[in-house]
Prior knowledge:
Elements: H1 3-6, H2 19-26, E1 30-35, E2 40-44, H3 46-52, H4 56-60, H5 67-79, E3 83-88, E4 94-103, E5 109-119, H6 144-153, E6 157-159, E7 164-172, E8 182-188, E9 194-200, H7 206-226, H8 229-242, E10 250-256, E11 262-268, E12 274-276, E13 282-284, E14 302-305, E15 311-315, H9 327-343, H10 355-371, E16 377-384, E17 391-396, H11 401-416, H12 420-440, E18 452-459, E19 465-471, H13 486-494, E20 497-503, E21 506-513, E22 516-518, E23 520-523, E24 536-540, E25 543-550, H14 555-565, E26 573-583, H15 585-595, E27 606-609, H16 615-623
Parallel strand pairs: 7-23, 25-26, 26-27
Antiparallel strand pairs: 1-2, 1-5, 3-4, 4-5, 6-22, 7-16, 8-9, 9-10, 10-11, 11-14, 12-13, 12-15, 15-16, 17-18, 18-19, 19-21, 20-21, 24-25
Helix pairs in contact: 6-7, 7-8, 9-10, 11-12, 12-13, 14-15
Amino acid sequence: xxxxxxxxxxxxxxxxxxxxxxxxxxxxxxxxxxxxxxxxxxxxxxxxxxxxxxxxxxxxxxxxxxxxxxxxxxxxxxxxxxxxxxxxxxxxxxxxxxxxxxxxxxxxxxxxxxxxxxxxxxxxxxxxxxxxxxxxxxxxxxxxxxxxxxxxxxxxxxxxxxxxxxxxxxxxxxxxxxxxxxxxxxxxxxxxxxxxxxxxxxxxxxxxxxxxxxxxxxxxxxxxxxxxxxxxxxxxxxxxxxxxxxxxxxxxxxxxxxxxxxxxxxxxxxxxxxxxxxxxxxxxxxxxxxxxxxxxxxxxxxxxxxxxxxxxxxxxxxxxxxxxxxxxxxxxxxxxxxxxxxxxxxxxxxxxxxxxxxxxxxxxxxxxxxxxxxxxxxxxxxxxxxxxxxxxxxxxxxxxxxxxxxxxxxxxxxxxxxxxxxxxxxxxxxxxxxxxxxxxxxxxxxxxxxxxxxxxxxxxxxxxxxxxxxxxxxxxxxxxxxxxxxxxxxxxxxxxxxxxxxxxxxxxxxxxxxxxxxxxxxxxxxxxxxxxxxxxxxxxxxxxxxxxxxxxxxxxxxxxxxxxxxxxxxxxxxxxxxxxxxxxxxxxxxxxxxxxxxxxxxxxxxxxxxxxxxxxxxxxxxxxxxxxxx
Length: 630
């Protein structure tokens, strides 16, 4: 049977109830096929007809079609890329759409496949209707699944490198609506250097989360080899050229040597780091000049030298692009909060909180709490400190010695700020080995002064804690499994590595564990974006004028209006961004796509206008998108 005969005529309702056609019509949710450049409706499944009833042709077919659906379908047909959208069905509710290109066996776009699910009726609109040719993007609802996905893809903790005190905190805006964009990582190298990164994948949802996880994994694996952040960014750039959700992603990567204080960094379209001294003096380092991923610009490096006590602060653009505040104001706010966090005395309620933790906590609590947030926020702080001295203990092999050792070890681990689970593992492992030495290493005939147990704890350059427990007694082989040997087996299970050596000079147990400090991950309430101004787009021949917030809520509408004004990218269009109050990374990606089509073919030119000192000009300059000031 030919494919043409398998298709259902969407107008008369007849179809061949067999094979793929039957599966198509039994699928849950609305499915529809649009064929050819004219996007002729050729098939609608049973669920779609049941959902729309007599309005099937009115809602979907080209004859009485809704322009918003067909414009979106034309964008999918012309670009060959999937898109999402929404149709409001008056008082009956909404349709949440997902459109994808329908390709033939040769890979050519044959048409468009549309899938839709019915949504609840929208609240009544305000009495004042919007002016003609102006559109505001709708807000999305929270999705806790994305919160869980983001939590799984991000590091659960940061390493504890020698000579560096590190902390991080992450805030998800809208409790998951935009989850998927920001990421961070910290990699302790064998030679003692520390690689740091904060990145922002534009967009939101599952695709952005997956792209974020992939970029983070690639960066970590390449950076871990030799700390070459330029090579790591080039690897990410190569991947972004082949994965659309990763295009225009920004990254700030750095490698810090705690012995010399030397810092090498690259700002690939990302806000530059800040350095704050012990006396509260804050300095924003100059941008290195590199562009976002897949922008075609080289990854240039810059250098700086930190002094002991200096704190390096890296962050995502969400903290300097907050609702109701200009980028300049947000930047000043951040510097002031960081300065006060450094100068503040001990907090009686947070005695164990060090400077990096305080910077991360207060930056998010105070700034996000004051204005709300329109995007995820990541803050990563690294303080150059005096390397932690080794713990060296020597006690007689007595019954009370394990308790004393645990108390001394707890203080040492607390100073390192080892996470609670890692501390429990180390305490159990060391306690079992020390107990074994006290009970079994020395016979009763040995003088107590000669029956000694020694414990040393050392943090190496790679952030691994190594504990050695030694005695000068006699090794006694374990007896029956029910009575002996369990303590050493438990110690082996709690440690990453465990070695036991015994001979005439005594017994030495050496265990190693790579601990981490925990990372705080927070979610914002739905009211956190109360200061957001919706995007308004005014269209005139050859140009668009934008005002308000260009964030994840506005991307579909902005992409559609640019395609409409440029006739699919075939004529020149000027986009005036003078009235834009916030340009988020998701909006930057739309502009990148329009200025540099994925296929490399563009007959028209998109020109951006952003006055000096405007929020849009600040972002465009940072991400290296060409623009004019008037």
